[in-house]
Amino acid sequence: MKLSLKIPTLFLLGFSFFSPVKALAEQPFLAQTPLEVSGQPLPWQVVTSTEGKYVVDLPGTPTEQTSTSTLLERDLRWHMGAVTLPAMNDTDLFEYYLVAYADVPRSLRYEFSQRELLEAAAASIVNDIHDQQLNDTLVIEEIAFQGLPAQLLTAQGLGQYLVATLSLTGDRFYLLLAIDDDQANFEHFFNSLSLVP
Fold first, then answer.
1. Over the stretch 134-165, which tens digit does the pLDDT of each residue have?
2. Residues forming a β-bridge with 166
3. What pTM value is reported for the model?
């Protein structure tokens, strides 16, 4: 998956008004070292995507873009909204939050199982991590997120943690990705997602 959104250590992977439907979800937790709580809350704001059919909190106004990637020899068009908060000093490192969705081509939905689609998409995302330390610490687990089959990706490097959930509704992938060093921020972000019918 080639993405044009660049952040300092990674090359990784849109908004209106609807009432969200809350679903039960497993909280994504890091498989590695516990995080410290920094005590500095982020400036969370509600972001709604009519086309993406979701509501989520992001720590600022997202930069929106699209990108095309390849999954099992088919094109996927990702719609992304991301917020990067720059580092303030040596101890307050940058934070990065992203929400993205892509519709799964019909031919793939009939040809591959949800598990196969999720595994292939997660492998594609992993291939775009251009940081050896993150690659060396990467853990991928099968979970249920928002009641959906999902993959949880966790890694750590350069004093930051990467946590991402890649879930599948049957016809759409949802990717939530955060890079931060504060457990409370991770929990707020991942718990804020609501899919809109």
1. 778 889 999 999 889 999 999 887 778 889 99
2. 151, 175
3. 0.77
- Cα separation values, 2 from 21, 46, 51, 136, Å: 32, 28, 22, 21
Looking at this protein, which amino acid is placed at residue 175? L
Q: For residues 134 and 129, what is the distance between their CA atoms, to the nearest angstrom?
A: 7
Structure tokens at 130: 């251009």
Within 13 Å of residue 114, how many CA atoms lie on the same side as its CB? Answer: 15
